[in-house]
Amino acid sequence: MKHKIKLIYSAIAFLTLTLIGCDESDEGTTDEVSTEQKRVYFNVESAVVNRSSAEPFIVELRYEGPKTDKNIEIPYTVAFPNENNAMEGEDFLLPKSGVFTIEKGKAITRVVLLQQVINNENADQNRSMSFELQATEGIEIGNSSNSGNSITVTFGLTVVIDPTDPEDFIGDKKFTFGVETSTFKIPYFSNREDVRDTDNNDITTAVIAVHGSGRNANGQFESISGAAQMENINLDTLLLIAPQFVGDEEIGQFSLDEEHLFWGGTEWRTGEDSEEQDTSSFTVMDSLMVTLSKYPNLKKIVLTGHSAGGQFTARYAASSPIADDLDALDIDVSFVVNNPGTYTYMDDKRKVLGTDNTFAIPAGFVIEDCPDYNEYRFGLENLPPYLDEVGADGIRDRLPQRKVTYLIGQNDNDTSEEATSINTRCDALLQGLDRFERATNYFDHLLDFYGPAIMDNQKIHVVPGVGHSSSGMYQSEIGRENIFRN
């Protein structure tokens, strides 16, 4: 695949470090630590920062020892390699303080490593820097394996996609499938030449990443590929796919043939039918899932998406029967929903403003101003053909059986439509003011509607320090854990 290459940094605002062997109590206190030795260390030795927006870079420090009744201050130094140095003012800004503060009574403390990551579009290579913890009286630096006293940060590089170049924007591969007597296709990007070549015995896991409203499947592929590389897993066993649901404007702009499906506006993200060919985007995903199931050693499929792709993933999880079919083939299917702008509620209640977890039908004057608030895609009224075939009750029954993880960026709370393209219609605002609020309200809605049993298969996590960024979500520790390890 050819690219017009321009190197920039893309965003990871936060790295949550893996804590091996810790139960939930490790998140807050050190009550169960019996040793008298006090020890502080980084839990990983390196991190890659791929960024597209200027945000702080935060890591976690691990403390082992008796519970403390006061904060511990650990000084640190910053060093640079002999070549490929990161440059202050061009790549980053450091915090004013030269110490990390371990909060009293905590086993894990989040500390700001970089006050700001600068979007340096002129950098033409990876750049690195390192942070080293310094000796402190009464504190052992490093873990029992003699590591963790330093962390090396590499500012990575990514590709800027030219939306006017078909070799950049339109998927260089085509997924062709049949519906009754017709043949259709969509573009996609992948780390394999042809996903229909199912004779590959090495593939055990497939990850499908769905793009956002800009339909930039290439950028989505770059983000999920970066996350896979950070995992340091055997890429020979991993199939990565970024399907592309093109709009009618791309058909003419890039001279795509009549077999290409296309959608007007936002219909693809909600499973509605394509223009002219009347085929649901969910039908396309069903066909792709069935194709993947033919890999002889496939054990797991993960469908994930960011923003509009998160909307697609959540609604597809609730409506498609494919997960049941693949489960019968001993293929585990899970869904990871990242930062969607709206959700489909299972009933006509919405959270009562100013309450923690009270849901009720909106007041009459609210419904008068927003009469369609519970129509699909916000609720289950007036369903499009694919979902209507399942039925509202069928969707309500199907959703709690699905393995769904909802991830929301801690900083995805911008209410500016210009900045993040967040939906500001009244039906969306009834779900919350911003994406963060809408995510937490929706999971509270699931608890209200289904009770605690919903948590048997579904969960929600906040990704600290990340805003509305697909790379930040996928490449965070929490994102990688739920996409590649669970």
In short:
The chain has 486 residues and is α/β, with parallel strands linked by helices.
In percent, how much strand structure appears in the residues? Answer: 15-25%
Main sheet makeup: 8 strands, mixed
CATH class of the largest domain: Alpha Beta
CATH homolog superfamily of the largest domain:
Alpha/Beta hydrolase fold, catalytic domain
> Would you report the number of β strands?
23
Shape verdict:
globular
Question: Helix/strand-derived class?
Answer: alpha/beta
Adjacency order of strands in the biggest sheet: 14-15-17-16-18-19-22-23
Topology:
Blueprint: E1 7-8, E2 39-42, E3 46-49, E4 57-64, E5 72-79, E6 92-93, E7 99-102, E8 108-114, E9 116-117, E10 127-133, E11 140-141, E12 150-155, E13 158-159, H1 166-169, E14 173-179, E15 182-190, E16 205-210, H2 217-231, E17 238-243, H3 248-253, H4 281-292, E18 300-306, H5 308-319, H6 322-327, E19 332-338, E20 350-351, E21 359-360, H7 364-369, H8 385-390, H9 392-398, E22 403-409, H10 417-420, H11 426-429, H12 435-450, E23 458-463, H13 470-475, H14 477-485
Parallel strand pairs: 2-11, 3-12, 16-17, 16-18, 18-19, 19-22, 22-23
Antiparallel strand pairs: 1-13, 2-4, 4-8, 5-7, 5-10, 6-9, 10-12, 14-15, 15-17, 20-21
Structural description of this entry:
InterPro entries: AB_hydrolase_fold. It is a single chain. The chain is of the alpha/beta class and 486 residues long. It has 2 domains: 7-159, CalX-beta domain (Immunoglobulin-like); 166-485, 3-Layer(aba) Sandwich (Rossmann fold). It is built from 14 helices and 23 strands. The strands form 6 sheets. An 8-stranded mixed sheet has the order 14-15-17-16-18-19-22-23, sandwiched between helices. A hairpin with a 2-residue loop joins strand 14 and strand 15 (182-190). It is globular, with a radius of gyration of 24 Å. Mean pLDDT is 87; it is low at 1-34.
